[in-house]
Amino acid sequence: TPASILAILKSTPAALETLCSRVPADKWSDRPQPDEWALTEILCYLRDLDREIITPRLYRVIEENNPFLPDVDTSNWIEKRAYLEESGCSALENFTQNRIELLNFILGLPAKSWNRQAIEEESGPTTFDKLLSSLAAHDQDQVRRAVRAIKSL
Questions:
Q1: Angle CA(41)–CA(44)–CA(50) in degrees, nearest 5?
Q2: E strands, the chain, in order
Q3: Chain Cα centroid distance, residue 144
Q4: N or C end of the chain, less CB within 10 A?
Q5: Number of H helices, E strands in the chain
Q6: Average pLDDT over residues 31-55
Q7: Per-residue pLDDT for 152 more than 90?
Q8: CB 119 within 8 A of CB 66
Q9: What are the backbone angles phi and psi of residue 68, rounded to the nearest 5°?
Q10: What is the DSSP letter of 57?
Q11: Are residues 15 and 143 in contact, defined by beta-carbon separation less than 8 angstroms?
Q12: Per-residue model confidence as pLDDT tens digits over 129-145
């Protein structure tokens, strides 16, 4: 439902802040396993994904009629962008700020906006509400990933 989607989108920054507050800052860049993401990498990835892909796509769906949303390969961001050299704390702050702005945008829309359509390159026709639902599911996956990373430290 829209209410449950919004609840997840609103709670993700707080959940991450709570989880991260339990970890000493010098451990944020420790990978649980060589093939798993460190807490800093998770936070940088979420920041960049929200800022560079999710937010612009959602704006396009509202501002354009049935926009085409090209697929973006983010599989190499962790290494290419050298997230381990960044500040996880700063990434979390930036993610939180962007998410607040995104939520203010969403909350200012009329309910009928949730039915606006778009076409995703990989999966075809979609709607604004389906994009938000996917974002909420992705948020939950990343919070679970952060929990696993923290538990293994």
A1: 135
A2: 68-69, 117-120, 124-127
A3: 13
A4: N
A5: 6, 3
A6: 95
A7: no
A8: yes
A9: -90, 125
A10: H
A11: yes
A12: 999 999 999 999 999 99
Please check whether residue 41 is in contact with residue 78, taking contact to mean a CB–CB distance below 8 angstroms: yes
Q: Where are the beta strands (DSSP E) in 53-116?
A: 68-69
At residue 153 the predicted structure's pLDDT band, cuts being 50, 70 and 90, is confident
Conformation bin of residue 64: beta by default, left when phi > 0, alpha when psi is -120 to 50: beta
**DSSP symbol at 75:** T
**Hey, what amino acid is at 12?**
T
CB 114 within 8 A of CB 2: yes
E-strand spans in 2-111?
68-69
Tokens at residue 53, please? 């892909």
**Residue that has been written with the tokens 């929990």 in this structure:** 147
* CA distance readout (Å), 47 to 25, 51, 65, 87, 92: 18, 6, 27, 12, 7
Give the residues across from 120 on adjacent strands. Answer: 69, 124
In degrees rounded to 5, what are phi and psi of residue 28?
-60, -25
- Residue among 23, 57, 58 at smallest CA distance from 43: 23
Residue carrying the six token digits 């697929």 = 71
